[in-house]
Amino acid sequence: MFLPVSSRVSFPEIEEKILKLWTARDIFKRSVENRSGRKRFTLYEGPPTANGRPGIHHVLSRVFKDVMPRYKTMKGYYAPRIGGWDTHGLPVELEVEKALGFKSKTDIERFGIAEFNKKCRESVFKYVEDWNRLTERVGYWVDLEHAYITMNNEYIETGWWVVKQLWDKGLVYQGHKVTPHCPRCGTSLSSHEVALGYEENTEDPSVYVKFKIEPAGMAGPLAAFTDKPFSLLAWTTTPWTLPANTALAVCGTAEYAVLDMGEEYLVLATERLEANGLHNAHQAGRVSGCHLVGLQYQPLFDPFDSGVPVYRLSPTGMTAAEPGEIFYPVIATDYVSMEDGTGIVHTAPAYGEVDYESGVKHGLYFIHHVDLQGKITGSYPGAGKFVKAADPLITRALKDRHLIQKDEKIHHTYPFCWRCATPLLYFAKQSWYIRTTARKADLIENNERINWYPEHIKRGRFGDWLQNNVDWAFSRERYWGTPVPVWRCDTCQASDCIGGVDELRSKPGFTGFPEPLDLHRPFVDEIAYDCQKCGGRMRRVTDVIDCWFDSGAMPVAQQHYPFDPDSRSIFEDGRFPADFICEGIDQTRGWFYSLHALSTLLFGQPCFKNVISLGLILDEKGEKMSKTRGNVVLPETVINKHGADAVRWYLLTASPAGNTRRFSEKLVGEVTRSFMSTLWNTYSFFVLYANIDNFRPGTQKHDLASELDRWILSELNQLIAEVTADLDAYDPVAAGRAIEAFVDYLSNWYVRRSRRRFWKSESDADKLSAYNTLYECLVKLSKLIAPFMPFLAEEIYQNLVAGNGTEKDDSVHLCDYPEAEMTSIDNVLSGSMRLAMKASSVGRAARAQAAIKVRQPLADAVIAGLSQTERSGLEKLADAIAEELNVKCLKFTSDADSLSADEYSTVSDGPVTVGINKRLTPELVDEGLVREITHRIQGLRKTAGFDIADTISTFFETDSVTERVMEAWGEYVAKETLSRDLVNGVPDDPGITAETFKLEGHAIKLGVKKTT
Ligand SMILES: [Zn+2]
Ligand SMILES: [Zn+2]
């Protein structure tokens, strides 16, 4: 016997029960260890930060990460999954700063780095309980007991080892470069971090500035324009950078127009006249860009009066500039755009990458009048204010001096800090770099060896990113992170990179080793040793490492490679590279990249073989979820209502992995109502009847006389083959959809067509075959869905298999994944059955068109438009179709036109036409009435709450016509409704459940009572 299964089901309740069962039987661990010694399947867990609560996008990636290792385990792979936590970096520091009410780095330093980092350490697991609970609740199987933690000394030590490897290969350098800088966080960002924070439609000033040329240098074709002021017009959206302007760049081969504006001449590219609304201005002449090159102009502000240091750039470095020099040249460069602006580019070497390069090349002045908090320094307009607040003040000062031609606003895309939403500023700064550009070809070539899902990411988003590779700015001027392991001599500036703790300890004159060991700031900053060159002291540079580097180093750092002896075999035993990783699409420039870059630079090979890049998750209306919009859907809410399986199934099948998807409680609810209920009802139907008939699985062989049984088993095996192929191709979406289609066949055709076989089969062998077939379908389905819906799969397996001792495994997750029996696949039969389903649905439409009730039997139906093969296939299934259409006989014709409209109601779908004979004989009318009565009695049985096997007495009171019909069809009615007797007259007995109906104009009172 199976445990009874209610058709009313609470999936969340079942899941809580299954969670207890898994814990009690230690199923996750056993599912892994059972396969030990087999080929490994390695998942790398992209580490989340537990200082914030998990959201629905975390559930999304966890679901996709879970399904593959579960599948591979059932396919026989050894698949330990190590969890991980990202614990360093700006995100953590920011939360602590917020809690302490800090506004800048000064606040932190006043508070003390040791205290601050202690707070950071405490905060990183603030929500770990929430994470663990949700991880368990969604059925994400991952080893959290042995999770790697990026702030552990061992993890940091491997990080140092990685830097040292790169250092030894000449791939680490400290550069003075213009980098994106967050003035609030006081640190540089790497280019992949910048990519995370672009905001569209940002309002900024759009200012056109006039730069007055010194007339002394105007010769050749320009000599004609010395009669009044001659100015070059340049455009900027960052007026705050204007005090740092030290050159104007033009395109040497472009043509420039000289406009006579009355009191002055204005110059801009001819190509840009119209865009700037100056095409109607009077043109005094045209000159080539090369004639402008070499001119000198008057600076907008004199830097030597401003109180900020002024430098001269050169290829060998920066030197202090002398007051009195005048050098503000017009230069020719290849970066002058004719897409926007005026064709004359304002150049400020401190605030732009190409500007800086020009500065070095042309020996320009370098003026940096903004501090690291983004405030204007010196005596410039807006001094002491944040640059964006200083913009209008600087513009105003220039306007007062008639140097502004136009002052407007524009809306454009601008980068913001991805953590704190402060606008980023481009600053020339010292920073540590990994020279990824030196291995660009390898990065691109190794990417070719990775399978991307969706595939277009490979050469699209990720490939483009690699093509446009820039060196990785991997240091941060911050506190809570892996320290940059570089020590520098305070006397001769010689530097060392340290690759491990023992190496550091072995240095001469070593002091300051922290007890207990803590490789964080400020302790590690205390460690010093003797310089081997000059006898000075080696002290650590103060920077820490970007947390993207930490997570990118996880393949080796999680094993404490190469320090732990066990770690040294990762390249041989399948722990490296990973078979599979999966995260959101935003990680193409984050974790996916940092893994790929470090692996390529360290080991010359890719770090992962297969990667699913998941699309964004939006709310029901397709809008981004955010706290401010108030449309955040909490995963717990939906799970508590519909269960984790429903959430998993929805996320896994609603749209292709790479697509943007919508999420809401309602959308998940639809999954429960459609797919899960269908499956559950089929399962509950089976258990109900199997228990009545005392069916015992596994004792009898299939008797495949039934076409239906052969067909559904063919479909089942086809499904197994398809799901296996899909999952092998990392496509759980296609696999899930195939399962859905099968469950629909199983429920809406196989079970529906087989109902009578379970109930009152003519032969025991046929009934047994039906039971065996449905049992096999359900058991194999439970295994097929196990990686997707681990709870429901377990529930069904426990009742149908484990509870009966039918198989040895006491959990579905310990089973092998089903193998397709190719000999059971009959494509011809499948084709015929699909055609039969189609013919039935077309036939039902024809009935509906004639407005004939479904229970009214009709004489015949005719099918037209079939090929000879199709027809002979359908002839074998004629009984099933006739029953579906409730007709006495099914006919075929090659000529659809032969069906007269008087006699037949016809509907076509493609080539297939079905005609339904509309003519009703008195006998058919009687039979229709009997079917309606039978249906009402069945309804009363349900109302009375009888079990389906209970026998009853049926009472009726009606007119003479119906009485005659009841007598003529009594035997049929009795058999269909399990009535021992049919009694004319409904006695006044409270034990009888009775109701009066009006059927085809006849009133009839019906009553039922259970017989004892
Ligand atoms: Zn920031
Ligand atoms: Zn030295």
Automatic annotation (TrEMBL):
Residues 709-858 form the Methionyl/Valyl/Leucyl/Isoleucyl-tRNA synthetase anticodon-binding domain. It catalyses: tRNA(Ile) + L-isoleucine + ATP = L-isoleucyl-tRNA(Ile) + AMP + diphosphate. GO terms for biological process: isoleucyl-tRNA aminoacylation. Its main location: cytoplasm. One of its GO terms (molecular function) is isoleucine-tRNA ligase activity. ATP binds at K627. Keywords: Aminoacyl-tRNA synthetase, ATP-binding, Cytoplasm, Ligase, Metal-binding, Nucleotide-binding, Protein biosynthesis, Zinc. It is an enzyme of class 6 (ligase). Gene3D superfamilies: HUPs, Isoleucyl-tRNA Synthetase, Domain 1, Valyl/Leucyl/Isoleucyl-tRNA synthetase, editing domain. Residues 17-658 form the Aminoacyl-tRNA synthetase class Ia domain. Its cofactor is Zn(2+). It is found in: Cytoplasm. GO terms for cellular component: cytoplasm. IleRS has two distinct active sites: one for aminoacylation and one for editing. The misactivated valine is translocated from the active site to the editing site, which sterically excludes the correctly activated isoleucine. The single editing site contains two valyl binding pockets, one specific for each substrate (Val-AMP or Val-tRNA(Ile)). PANTHER family: ISOLEUCINE--TRNA LIGASE, CYTOPLASMIC (PTHR42780:SF1), SOLEUCYL-TRNA SYNTHETASE (PTHR42780). Monomer. This is Isoleucine--tRNA ligase. It comes from Dehalogenimonas alkenigignens.
